[in-house]
Amino acid sequence: MMGITLGIDVGGSTTKIIGLRDGELIGAKQVRAGDQMTALFGAIGSFLRECNTKLGDVSSIMLTGVGASFIGGESIYGIRTQKVNEFQAIGQGALCLSGLDEALVVSMGTGTAFVKAEKGIVTRIGGSGVGGGTILGLASQMLRKSNVDAILALAEGGELENVDLMVREIIGCEIPSLPSNLTASNFGKIKNTASESDLALGIINMVFETVGMLAVFALRNEAMQDVVLTGTLATFPQAEGVFSQFSDLTGINFIIPEDAVFATALGAALPLG
With 243 labelled, which of 16, 56, 214, 219 sits at a CA distance of 20 to 30 A? Predict the structure, then answer.
């Protein structure tokens, strides 16, 4: 039996860790901490405890993510440690989770990365500063909330029509290619009676709609029609509804795979190619 390979995605706000033994996933966990080093070692310790395994069972550690650059040396706890290009890890992990041979991968973390992934070939297309950091930043100023769980709890009771201007409100006739319930302007119609729940939902919706349109534009001249959504934001309850609407409107297949939050960590642990 081979030893365990740990794939660790050291992000800007959370660190995700997965373990593979003989190619099989044995566990996954994410940890939040004030700095990347604390999160990294905390994630390793928590993972080993929860999976009831020992440090000696680990044969290699594969690091990726924006925080990996702060971690020096070629070993952690005496275990061989390597760094994996983050975009390579994003692409490989998404294809593995989705079962696809090619796709546009949209990794939604603090910001958003767009990667074209094919078997053995991963190409960075670009990125956007709109992402989870946008949600946290706006919510901290508009709602005095900086905790993701608190923001999501608020958004559950929100009504978009109290903050967003809809297409039907500015167009007096039906346009077959433009459904009347689409957003014409995010936050274009904030009512005085808008609640904190309305604002929370409006912030989340604005980020998802922006990311969705950028994905559509990225595929404008491409034959592929599959978009795999990964990262922490892919687990938000509002994601499925917003991206399903994009699928209906554009014909592009937006996919949120199971364990989407661990895609990059998984991609780091997989063999290259």
Answer: 16
